[in-house]
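Something for you to look into today, if you have time. Could you write out one complete protein record for me, on any chain you like? The space below this message is yours for that.
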Amino acid sequence: MPHRLSITLSDTDSTDYTPSLLAVDRALSDLRRGQIVAIQGDGDEVTLTLAAEGATKTAIERLKSLSGGFPHLILTTARVHTLGLGSFSTKAVRAEMGKAMRPDLIEGLVNPLARISKNDFFDIPFSEVALQSGESASIGLAKLSRLIPASISATIKNDDFKGFVEAENLTGLKKEDIFGYEEAAARSLRAVSDAQVPLADAPNTKIVAFRPSDGGIEHFAIIIGEPNPADPVLIRIHSECFTGDLVGSLRCDCGDQLRGAIRSIADHGSGILLYLAQEGRGIGLVNKLRAYKLQDTGVDTFDANEQLGFDADERVYLPAAQMLDHLGVNQVRLMTNNPEKVSVLKSCDVDVIERVEHAFPTNQHNEPYIVAKATKGGHYL
């Protein structure tokens, strides 16, 4: 993913991250409201960026005025590949649209559900975007905002970044703030609230809420029974799923996995379920619904994410490792069919003693999803 650098645990005090996190929070808010954001790059480089999703003619014209030229459309390589518009080695690609930078053509390029002929795209030149550039950071910002991962960006030269953003009333931040956001948010997690919450299948349950230092989205630890940190603790890492967990969707196995994990941990006597705010494998609920619509045309869950411009799986598990660290748990028996969860936890210095199988029967609606997880995702199913 363009906006993600190495993610490891650190002992640095969480307050060190707060200014950086708050800068990204403000930028995310502006981006979602259709505003221009300024990203400070190397030297005197400044990337002015606007979310491609929902971009208006007025906003594009202001971006042109601020930059003094034609901005570019920045897409992920995954999206360009699915369009059949070229093969690139970088994570992001620049579409040099010039005077063709109009909302309907932008929508057709970034949104696979848009009704527009792809013949309109073939005369647009594309070029690679440097991995740690301001343009690459603009894609990361769009992903963090849970919008379609594409931006309209223009890079200018200005040696007075602070003066420029103040004069133009723009939210400004450093590209490093975006690249390191997920790591900083995870490292700054702290327990902010807890309570006993008897569950239907696990009456002796306590829920602990963890929040990053910027007041961002919370993750939760569901502690069942009295796990002993001196012994390997039975755990499950579960990414939130509104459709499966809450309303009982049959398109996935998430609800079965959630309730089944709670029952299994209760039957075992104790353990922890870590409930992470990573809807739709990290793409957000709105984009997950878009992916569902694409799946209805015959593509699988991984290809649908990539058609939208995302990686097949955008989740990170550092928050889970950080929560375990706060709970004093280092040795775990991990309930999962996903080998990536095992390897990532190990890379975060969590001692995974055993992988515990966690599979459930399929139904006619989720069988293609389960097959894709096994054949493409490498899940043990």
About this structure: Residues 14 and 357 are 35 Å apart (CA to CA). Residues 14-183 form a domain with the DHBP synthase fold (CATH 3.90.870.10).
